[in-house]
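name: query_chain
kind: protein
chains: 1
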Amino acid sequence: MPGDRGAVGERNETPMLIFTSPTTPFGRKVMVLIREAGLTDAVQVQDVTGTPLTPGTLPVDHNPLGKIPALVCDDGRVLYDSRVVCRYLDHLAGAGLYPDVPFLWEILTLEATADGILDAAVLMAYEQRLRPEDLRYPDWLEAQWAKIARALDAIEAQWLDQLQGPLNMAQIALGCALGYLDLRHVVRNWRAGRPKLAAWEVEFAKRPSMQATKPPPV
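structure:
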């Protein structure tokens, strides 16, 4: 059972190591999975900091792209990006967060949609936080938000069934994506016009794994 998978770490002298940050939504996906899969005793967490402009303590020696999360497995292999890490840990724990085919394709597509929301939202945050104000490109920012808005509208209209029932990785990815919109882009009010998705998020955010990984205010 997933709740018993803490024994994974006990079978190895060296636990797995995850490089992440409390504010990265992609790392949060992995941290939620770790809790849901019962792997907290099997994974050591290393918080890092940095930006595309200043790598800081980002794990460039483990992931040449310098992105997080990156997972060092107990045999020394390094896995990234978040979708690869999540799929590996789910397989390791037997957590069942990725269903069998044919339903697998729907879950993977919805997970990719949530990750696409995050890609656009992170780019917006970089533009607003890292680029000098006189060099910011408002039309580019709005184009990124348009991607997010279209994806949220599609989820509201077409994907609510996949958000019900047993926990799956698409639900975790979407919950983390919506949490990041609240963290970095709250003035955009993603909930407006999407009452079903907003109601789902309220309930999903109550999960202990989501509460434990909630990012600090910025």
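note: The mean pLDDT is 93.
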